[in-house]
Amino acid sequence: MTNLVGDAEQAAQAAGEDATSKRSRSRQSSPSNVNTIVTAPDGTTTHEHDAGRSGTKRLWLSGGILVIVIGVMAALAVAYRMTHPSTLAVTVFDVTSGPVLQTITASGSVVSKKRVEVTSPLAGTISNVLVKQNETVRRGQTLATLDETKEKARLAQAELKVKNAQSEVATTQHALEAIMAQVTSGVLPTRALDDAGVAVESSRAYLQLAREELQAAQLALERHAILAPFDGLITAVSAKAGLRAESSGSLFTLVDPHALELEFHVEELQRAELFPGLTATLTSSVLADKQWTESVVRVIPASKSGSGGTSVTVVMSLTDPVAALGIGQAVEAQFRVPSQAPVVQVPPEAIGKEPNGRNVAAVVINGKVHYVAVTIGATTPSLVEVREGLSDGQQIVLLQKMNEWPKEGTEVTIVDHAL
Q1: For residue 337, which of 266, 262, 261, 392 has the smallest C-alpha distance?
Q2: Helix, strand counts (H, E) of the chain
Q3: Residue 412 contacts by C-beta under 8 Å, 6 or more apart in sequence?
Q4: CB atoms closer than 10 angstroms to residue 80
Q5: Contact 325/271 with Cβ under 8 angstroms?
Q6: What is the pLDDT of residues 157-199, one digit of tens each?
Q7: How many C-beta atoms lie closer than 10 Å to residue 104's C-beta?
Q8: Are the beta carbons of 92 and 417 closer than 8 angstroms?
Q9: Residue 340: HSE in the Cβ half-sphere, 13 Å Cα cutoff
Q10: What is the torsion angle, in degrees rounded to the nearest 10, for the CA atoms of residue 302, residue 305, residue 311 and residue 312?
């Protein structure tokens, strides 16, 4: 069809030039408005028009028909070219990169600002646990006791020792008084008082030592009681009767339920994107219709997460008076942070998926289509993040807006640029 249209145009052009030439020659060789007078033998005369005029009419008629034919053929040629262009018309998107806001989602819970892990003052076997989880306690209240068998025996011995020492003091004092009376009456020599006085002093010293041992035994017994250091709420109990307690191991978690904050765990890779003062939108399953905003207070260095990776602890304020939120309640946070590196984002229509599952983009280079593999990241209804495969300045075809993908190397004409 393309050759036919081209031949028609050439023929029309040649015919037009030929008709124009003939009309020019006719005008030059044939006189216009020439009349011929013919006299018959009987003397009558008639007027005849020159035959050249009739030829001119026929020539104009032929030329007009030819012009019509040429016009029709030219119109067909234009229509064919409009519906069958020599190159494929495409709409492209101009690739650019730049910082974008990304969303980091984290799960956390309500915690107390004042939290203490209560330990045993000394190593020993736990004999009694006197409180339960979620129980409110007062400062100085006994939470658990260690086995006191040895300490009670030691206390009993110390008490007996004090009693005996007191009796010994009383005896030596009474003996001193009796000897003094005899010395006064001259029955005993004066030196007898010296020996009695030494005995009294010795018994008193023994009593003082016994009292010190009793005090030590009492303190040791008191240390077998594990006490609450302040008013608060017991949120965790690991102590069990019969379990040996070490001075470094936590037995209870005690918190102040009136000083609350939020604690989240975020992957270590995202730590640099989170900083004190950054705000987040919060939601909780116990508050179905409520959203509120809080700020990051501090970021605690990385520790091992439950999945085996490393995570950082992000602590946020809890200034909004949410009565339904208590210690341990689950909270979800969405942080909106700018990307640290420029990000390439393109319309979803520009990304195609091959039968093998590979994502591709059609890049226009020197007027031809070339397919490249791309790695995509975050996706929204309006934009797709391309992490690898595309760069600034490239033009890519909106593949998903085409009835059929162009083949590799297809020549294209860019007719529009998508925004």
Answers
A1: 266
A2: 4, 26
A3: 87, 88, 89, 90, 364, 367, 368, 369, 397, 406
A4: 14
A5: no
A6: 989 999 999 999 999 999 888 888 888 888 888 888 888 888 8
A7: 18
A8: yes
A9: 6
A10: -60
Phi-psi region of 238 (alpha: psi -120 to 50; beta: other; left: phi over 0): alpha
Q: Which range among 83-97, 214-228, 242-256, 290-304 has the greatest average pLDDT?
A: 242-256
Give yes or no for residue 5 having a pLDDT over 50.
no
Average pLDDT over residues 130-141: 95
Q: What is the pLDDT of residues 291-349, one digit of tens each?
A: 889 999 999 877 655 555 678 899 999 887 566 688 888 999 999 887 777 889 999 99
According to DSSP, the β-strands at 412-418 and 88-94 are parallel
Residue 179 in contact with residue 192, Cβ under 8 Å? yes
CB atoms within 10 A of CB 370: 13
Q: Which residues contact residue 224 at a Cβ distance below 8 angstroms, ignoring those fewer than 6 apart?
A: 122, 124, 145, 146, 147, 148, 151
Residue recorded with tokens 């033009």: 395
Which residues are CB-neighbours of 401 under 8 A, at least 6 positions away? 91, 349
Look up tokens 């339920």; give the residue.
Answer: 257
Q: What count of other Cβ atoms lies within 10 Å of the Cβ of residue 163? A: 13
Is residue 133 within 8 A of residue 234, CB to CB? The reply is yes
315 within 8 A of 296, measured Cβ to Cβ: yes
Quick one: tokens of 394? Answer: 């490239």
Joined together, the tokens standing for residue 332 give: 């979800």
Phi and psi, residue 351, nearest 5°: -110, 125
The alpha helices in 286-377, defined as continuous H runs, are none
Cite the beta strand spans of 186-342 per DSSP E.
Answer: 225-227, 232-237, 244-245, 250-255, 260-267, 279-284, 287-304, 310-316, 330-338
> Which of 329, 343, 409 minimizes the C-alpha distance to 112?
329
- Residue 34 and residue 9 in contact, taking contact as beta carbons nearer than 8 Å: no
Give one DSSP letter per residue of 387-405, joined into a string.
EES--TT-EEE-GGGSSSP
CA separation for the pair 18, 6 (Å, rounded) = 19
Q: Which of 223, 77, 90 is nearest to 148 (CA)?
A: 223
DSSP 3-state of 85:
coil
For the packed helices 191-223 and 149-185, what is the interaxial angle rounded to 10 degrees? 160
